[in-house]
Every structure is written in structure tokens, then in C-alpha cells.
Amino acid sequence: MAQLIDGKRLSNQVLQDVACEVERLRSEHNVVPTLAVVLVGEDPASQVYVRNKVKRAKEAGMGSILHRLDAGTTQGELNRLIDRLNHDSQVHGILVQLPLPSHLDEDEVIAAINPAKDVDGFHPLNVGALAAGQASLVPCTPQGCMIMLHRVMPELRGKHAVVVGRSNIVGKPMAALLLQADCTVTMAHSRTQEIESLCRNADIVIAAAGRPGLVGADWIKPGATVIDVGINAVEVEGTRKLVGDVAFDAVSRTAGAITPVPGGVGPMTIACLLLNTTRAARQQLASLAPP
Ligand code: NDP
Questions:
Q1: Which residues of the chain have pLDDT under 50?
Q2: Which segments constitute the Tetrahydrofolate dehydrogenase/cyclohydrolase catalytic domain (predicted)?
Q3: Nearest CA to ligand 1 atom 18
Q4: What is the pLDDT of residue 289?
């Protein structure tokens, strides 16, 4: 049976480090790292994610400010709020919960965030910095996946990784981080041909397609590491359940190591968000220091 990569336990370790850094910033610089979260509308999944982020931030001793905006908020109103947060020296990180209602332009909103406060790492400047290997604020989900991978595979150099999914928030930054770690990276997506055999040749498979149970046991080389990013709500015998993109029971008999859903990548994503917020606070402090 595959080794289980326990995201809850690992994320608690990251959160302990975050809490220590929060305490250092407070005692040495009188700074309380603070995350501003912007939620537009009533999307139920977004409300759960936002509640968890705010709760974890408080537990780590950080400041958190939740801005709940009406679903009918205009682009101008949202841009003005972002501008205010950009100029608020008490706010170190800004997160706009996605997806936004369809009348709002996500790209415009992301581009409006000060890149130094962009704790999601989605601003085009941070995306470019990641591609150039110079990023300081790296998207949280792929960052969490890398921490998990390092735990079970201390040496990533030369390993063949397949990333299933090419979104801006998961697939693309994931591939950039694996490349930086000297993996040989293949990106797969909905138009990829013979995806099973590509995955079967991989030492690492990252599943981020949003398709329940897409990755079966016959996709996985014996002993490979499988990271399941997917979070899909499905009905099983009348009960709503969260499952990943990987057929967990079958794949765990073939893989060498695997993440569960829930309790895998999800908790790591939140921990990395808070890690990014302390990093942003530290960098903003450094930028104020006299030369
Ligand atoms: P997107 O819908 O933005 O992207 C999905 C990607 O998967 C696309 O590139 C798509 O290809 C590809 N894809 C879809 N179907 C297939 C298929 N049958 N075979 C191969 N590739 C396929 O999703 P996200 O990247 O935002 O999220 C992916 C999953 O991860 C979701 O379940 C989401 O809920 C979850 N998630 C989990 C997080 C966590 O913290 N654990 C954080 C963020 C997301 P194409 O580009 O060709 O359409």
C-alpha cells in the first residue's frame, strides 16, 4: 500500500512555523501580519474557503479582515476597495476569493492588486517572476504540493513529472515549480492524446483537472508519487461527499505515495497562504528600511 501523505499533519507543521514568524514580527518590529480577504457574492464553496482562511489566520496570531461584498458589486467599487487595501500600511496580503460573479473581470481585479501584497501569486508580475525563477510570492496550492513532494521524495532532480491540468492557478505554476526543482515536466490537459500512457511513464503525477476519479490505477507506474489536487463534490448514495481526481482506493495499491482528499492538498493551500502573508509582511518591512 502507498504511503499516505498527510496534509493535515504537514500543514500543522507549516502553521507552527508561521505562528513563530508572526511572533517574531510582532516582538521585533511591532508588526502584525494582516490578510485582507475579499468575498463577492454568496457562492457556498467560496464562503467555506473564506471562513477557513480567516479562522486559520486568527489561530496563527495574524490579523485578518473580511470584506463581504454584495453579488451586485460593480467593477469600479471592487477596484476602489483594492486600491484602498493597496495603500493601507496595516494590510500586508490581499486575497480576492475566486471565482467572481460573471459580470466582474477577474484579470482586471488581479492586475489591480499591488504585486507586493498579492499573496495568491496570481498577479502577472508574480507569474512572470515565477517563470523566471525569481518568485517570492508563489501560488499557494502548487507551493503546498511541492512541500508534500519534498517530504516523500527528497531528491526530485531528473524525475519525470506529469501535471494533469493547465490552469493559471494550479497547473501552470505547478509545472514551473517542478521545472525549477530539475524535474522533467510534461503538461497534460483535455486535448492531450494518450494521457494514460504519459502518466504511466511518470515518477510523479499531479492531478488537477477537476474530474472525479479521472486518474485510475492503470495510469500509475508502480511506486510513483501521486498528488491529488482535485476537490469535487459528488453524491454517493444520496450523501454529498468530497472526492479528488484520483481513484484513491485503486491507485493507493499501485502508487508509492499518495495524498488523500479531503485532508491532503487542501489544508496545505491554506497554510501556504498564511506563509505568503508573513513573507509579504517581512518584504514590505524590508522595503521600508533605510538603505
Ligand atoms: P480548471 O477548471 O481551471 O482547470 C482544469 C484543467 O484540467 C484544465 O486545464 C483542463 O484542460 C484540464 N482537464 C479537464 N478535464 C480533463 C481531462 N479529462 N483530462 C485531462 N485534463 C483535463 O480547474 P483548477 O485548476 O482551478 O482546479 C482543478 C481542480 O483542483 C478542481 O477540482 C479544483 O476544485 C481543485 N483545486 C483544489 C485546490 C486545493 O486547495 N486543493 C485549490 C485549487 C483548485 P483544458 O485547459 O484543455 O480545458
A1: none
A2: 5-120
A3: 190
A4: 78
Q: Is the CB of 144 inside a 6 Å radius of any atom of ligand 1?
A: no
Distance 264 CA to ligand 1 centre (A): 16
Any ligand 1 atom below 6 A from CB of 145: no
pLDDT of the residue at 144: 98
Q: Under DSSP, is residue 103 helix (H, G, I), strand (E, B) or coil? A: coil
What would the grid cell of residue 83 be?
486600491
CATH class, range 140-266:
alpha beta
Residue ranges per domain, the chain?
Answer: 29-114, 140-266
Any idea which residue has 523566471 for its cell?
Answer: 132
Cell of 11: 500543514
Residue 167 dihedral angles phi and psi, to the nearest 5°? -70, 160
What would be the CATH architecture of the domain defined by 29-114? Answer: 3-Layer(aba) Sandwich (3.40)
Which value does ipTM take for this structure? 0.99
Residue 56 per-residue DSSP state: H
Fold match between domain 29-114 and domain 140-266 = yes
The pLDDT score that the predictor gives to residue 135 is 85
| Residue listed under C-alpha cell 504511466 | 200
